[in-house]
Amino acid sequence: MLSVVVPAHNVDRYLVECLASLARQNYREIEVLVLDDGSTDSTLKIARRAARWDRRFRVHSWPNIGLGASRNRGEGLARGEFLAFLDGDDVVDRHVYVDAIASLRASGSDFAVFPYRRLTEDDAPPAAPWVLEAHAVPRTGVRLTDRPDILVNAVAWSKVYRREFWSASEISFPTDVRYEDQVPSTRAFIHARSFDILDRVSVNWRIRSDRSSISQAIATPANIRDQRAAALESLALLRSETPSDVYHARIAQLLSNNLGDFFTAVPDMTPRAWQEFRLLAGDLLALAIQEDCLWMVDARAKILSWSARDGARDAVENAMMRSGWSGAFREGRTTASGLITVIETELASSGLDTPGPMGLLSPRETRTIIAIDRDAETHERGRVEPNLVPVRIGIGGLVDEAESLSVELCALPNAHTHLAQPVELQLLELPYSRTAVRTATMSRAMLDSESPVEVRISVGGLRRAHLLSTTALLSGVYGTGLADLA
């Protein structure tokens, strides 16, 4: 049996939809523990009505003790072999629990983690790109050392646990704080013998129009303080119990991903909130410098965090008004050190004076882009050339210098080299950068041979080489963390 713990506090507007999504689950062996946490609206009435209609629903009510404490009580009341959490304003797809439990029964893993989408009043946009990327390829029997990128999925309601694992690991939610998901999620990833990564989007995370949920109250001092405490505690766990590359990956994730909403909220922060945010950004940046993993952090996060740490609020606000959290930070220029954001000089003139390493674009901002469209037509001297296939190649962040991009395609093992012909440049907006891709060509014979292809790219002092299968080329490759060659 699966126990789903649903804490609910003043969510009568959303609870009917939440409980209906649980009632119609494809997985039928389920108990739903609806926990009324001192609601003053109709939440308890709705929960009791659901329990009368469906005997799988059990309702408990107590004076308000908070989300973390309610989840802990609910876990203690659970009777199932498996355990899941869901907030009372969120909605799950019908397949979520049958998929997760089938995977766990097959793999023997301690828990399964799945991606989610946002849910607004009139739309269901995807989750952040780093969440989708972490779930792009399903895998079972994974260890955290294999996939530290999965730490970006740190919410409580995106997982199904074996309850025995949860209890044996002594995992619980912190109480009387916001961001109570991060530390128990980190503990689960650390302590699991293995976990399963699923790729099917399964949970709908409610984005309330009144911004009243805990995770949406970004600009308050208490919210920022609790985010800082949760981030530092989870990092301390990783530092003491995992290899350094896992610890470094999480530092980079928190800086590059989690600070975005805070930076966009800077204009709305009170002086006290701004001081709390300076501590949050400064502490994370200091860890990245101390651990020598600054190169892993997006340039925009490094530059703005450095400036926030130094108290340059006006300069941060001006930069956000001109460029937003992404904006012109997305483009770079080649240097001996790598790609440096082109906005660095402009920012320095407006008061954002940062040292050189802060402007260095991160590996994910400077990904190699390689993609083939096998069905597209290639034109040679005004006529269709059936023996050539277009290949789109670029480097993330490279726009102005893309005209001088040089590409070679080398088929192995015979080392037949095809020099890519300079065709048109196409501007692409990627999740982490803006880039211009060059359309080159390769022979269909090279593609059909299924031999590995080495792609060599050079521009200025920057050179890269990637060995790829034709299968990967056909599916489109976004190479991450690939080192530049001297």
What would you say about this model in short?
The protein is built from 16 helices and 24 strands. It has helices at 15-23, 43-53, 67-77, 96-107, 129-134, 163-168, 182-191, 221-241, 244-258, 260-264, 271-290, 299-309, 313-323, 344-349, 444-448, 470-475; strands at residues 2-8, 30-37, 57-62, 82-85, 91-92, 111-113, 116-119, 139-142, 159-162, 195-197, 203-206, 332-335, 338-341, 368-372, 379-380, 383-384, 388-395, 406-411, 416-419, 425-429, 434-443, 453-459, 462-468, 477-479. α11 crosses α12.
What topology emerges from the helices and strands here?
Layout: E1 2-8, H1 15-23, E2 30-37, H2 43-53, E3 57-62, H3 67-77, E4 82-85, E5 91-92, H4 96-107, E6 111-113, E7 116-119, H5 129-134, E8 139-142, E9 159-162, H6 163-168, H7 182-191, E10 195-197, E11 203-206, H8 221-241, H9 244-258, H10 260-264, H11 271-290, H12 299-309, H13 313-323, E12 332-335, E13 338-341, H14 344-349, E14 368-372, E15 379-380, E16 383-384, E17 388-395, E18 406-411, E19 416-419, E20 425-429, E21 434-443, H15 444-448, E22 453-459, E23 462-468, H16 470-475, E24 477-479
Parallel strand pairs: 1-2, 1-4, 2-3, 6-10, 7-11
Antiparallel strand pairs: 4-9, 5-11, 6-9, 8-10, 12-13, 14-17, 14-24, 15-16, 17-21, 18-19, 18-22, 20-21, 22-23
